[in-house]
Amino acid sequence: MSVLKRLLSDRAASLGAAIILGLVLVAILAPWIAPYPGDVTAFHLADRLQPPSAEHIFGTDRMGSDVFSRLLFGARITISIAVIAVGVSVAIGVPIGLLAGYYGGFPGGFLMRTSDIFLAVPQIVLAIAIAQTLGPSVENVILALSLTYWPFWARLVYAETNALKKQTFVEAALALGASDLRVMVLHILPNTASAIIVRTSIGMGATILTAAALGFLGLGAPAPTPEWGRTISEAREFLPEAWWYAAAPGLAIFLVVMGFNLLGDGLRDILDPKLRKGSR
Q1: pTM
Q2: Which site among 54, 119, 135, 269 is 20 to 30 Å from 100 CA-CA?
């Protein structure tokens, strides 16, 4: 409760949490709040590229579909990509970082050098290469992002574990006969949770931005899927006349990424004891 209270007292973090909550609610309720839920992938050539109006508040696209309805259903794709990709990255990176930091030596060095190989190449470039090789689809975007993002969590947990294993409470647990697995899972991992949570929040924003970039390059969900990045790509040839076509998904991406970044910064200030101590 104290963490929640401090989060609510932080205006920026509260704003970020509100944006993210709004995105989740929009994605869940899209079939009920979208003005034209049945026409998201339909063609209405007579209504194509209509400007914003009372009937279509964000205008229509090149197919004549309602941009606002496609935006709402696109939120579902965005959340799915971000949650699954980040979840897989955490599931891969955290155990690797935990094992490498705890045991060190050759196994730890090997695991960290492997992560360094991935980090040596810009993530967007590596993700593009993997997505291009596998072909355009939501599943391949998730796989490409997962394979390129796990080193961030591995590096973070490695540094935290390497410092925590020297603490007195770890030595005491080992002296009492606790196994290495028990020490890592019950003593070290909980003490890295705050850093993992902060990195995950910020990583969600970066994942959404990269997924949109892949969609923009034609490597994401195939047409006519209402994915935000692909929608912006389709709208390029109609700029600047049909500005609303690209402006709506672009603004949505901006707000969501900003929301995760604001929440991540707020959680860092709340959960990091060093920052809290320095602010007193």
Answers
A1: 0.85
A2: 269
